[in-house]
Every structure is written in structure tokens, then in C-alpha cells.
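Morning, I've got a small favour to ask if you have a moment. You're getting the sequence in one-letter code plus the fold written as C-alpha cells. Thanks so much in advance, here it is:

===
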Amino acid sequence: MKRREFITLLGGTAAAWPLAARAQQPAMPVIGFLNARSPEDTMHLVAAFRRGLGEGGFIEAQNVAIEYRWALGQYDQLPAIAAELAHRPVTVLATGGGEPGALAAKSATSAIPIVFVVGGDPVKEGLVTSFNLPGGNSTGVSVLTTTLEPKRLGLLRELVPRTATIGVLGNPGYLAYESQLRDVQEAARALALQVLVLPANTDDDIEAAFETVVQRRIAALTVLAAPFLDTRRDKLVALAARYAVPTMYQFREFVAAGGLVSYGANVADAYRQVGVYAARILKGEKPGDLPIMQPTKFELIINLRTAKTLGLSIPDQLLALADEVIE
């Protein structure tokens, strides 16, 4: 063989080596990220989810891909979105925004591992068989937010102790709505309070609810936990400011945006834990063997600037209990 021909052949073989090596490399795993909320109000939670993945050694676009899907608070869109991700198919389904996304994922697949964030009891909702050993293809985190409505009502009453009636804004389209109302009404009776129920499925409903609060001279409002209402965070905070209504929320993000007060779990840490679990499953662990995580601490967050704007004096005992005071 002539030298020139040998060099040409060697060069062609060397050029083929990377192609052959790439062909032998395993495909990058894909996580389907399904959320009942919207990207605009959830980016900090996505960042927390990525941190959890990173703790497990997975970095987006380096050794794992993520397909994002958002229902924008429209729960009826979730089953089709979950089915689309399941047929893709993805390696793991991570769901956020409460029970609607988790249930849609569970209906879409019994084979793909699911890691969820829900607000209530995943056993009661049929997502898992137990907290310690979930079984099946699902596990995740319960932030227990839908169970905290009575506590939020009681804290709000301490802020407005002389009021006889408190407004309750909730989303009837949310799975937990009826149980939330029952819990709040029972707590109200124990506090000798009246509650005015204000259902909201649309932006117009939210605006009408605040107008009703003003017309009826309701002293304060509590917003029930619901993904749809989470997507309307800025709207809710703006309306509460416009109409000067002291308002209680479920997550710190509302108070950071200018809301008065919140009480609930650290939801960013819940999403981080979903990322941790997703990484463990990608490494070979079974979701049914990973226990359901629950918060061990709930945060009371108070915005003193908003209180001052409302002309509201925060009782010393509440300030002492607060985990964070925004000044």
C-alpha cells in the first residue's frame, strides 16, 4: 500500500471512531416535568428541583434532559399532557402543583416512575398505599398545605381580632376544595366566626370576590390553597393592596410579592426533594421503596411594610412566632 493511501485510510478510520463511540453511548434519560401551575410563577421552584437533581449528580443538558409541560391552572388539560409525556416516553415523571397533576400522571402510566408534590394526603387520594412504603410506581412529597386551612384562619383572626366575618376565597375546580371548606367552616364555628365563601374559577371571579369583600365590609380574607390561585399570585396581591384587605396565603412567595401574611411549608424545599428522589430513581431505586416525605416545620411569614400600608398593627405574640418578618 502506498504511503498516501495509508494516511487517507487511517484518517478516515480515526474520523469514524467518535461516531462509533457516540453510537455506543446510552441515550440521555429524560424527565417529564408536569405542573398544574404556570412557568411565570414557578421558576424558583424549577430551580429548586434542579438543585435536587444536582445533589444526585444530574445536571440538565449534561447528563439528563427535562421536558417541561404547564397546565396554567387549567386542571382539565392535565390528563392529555400526562398521556403525551407517557407516550414520549420519559424515564421519570415529576409532577407539581398538587393532586391534579399527580393523579393525571398516575392515570397515564403504571410503568413510568412518578415523583409528585401534593398538598394533602396521597394515601387518601389513592396515589400510594402508605407513607412509609408507597408501593407501585409513585412516591413524592406532601406539603400538607390543604390541611392547614384552619390554622391559617386562626392566625388571620389574631390579626383582626374584632372582626365577626372573614372571607374565604377558594377554587371550586380544585380536588380538595370541598374538604377545605368543611375544615374552615368547622374552625370558624370554634372561633365564633362567620365566613363568607367566595368561589373563583376565573380572573373575573377573583375580581368580583374582592368587590364583594369591600361591599360587604369584610375585614379580612383567607385564600385557600389551589394551583389555579397560585398562578394568580400577582393579581391576588395587587387586588388585596388596591382594596386594602388583610389577606392570608399559603406560601412565602405571596408575602415576598407584597402580600401580608402566609403560613405553610417551604414549597421550594419540597421541589428540591422531588429532584433528589428523581435522581435516586434514575440511579436505579424504585419509587415504591422511597417513603413519602413530609415537612417537619411550617413557616409563618409577615410583611411589615404591607401591614403598615394597611394601617394594621401586628400583635407582639405573632411577631414572636414569625419565622421571617419582611421589613
Q: What stands out?
A: The domain at 146-264+299-326 is CATH 3.40.50.2300 (Rossmann fold). The chain has a mean pLDDT of 92. The first strand starts at residue 30 and ends at 35.
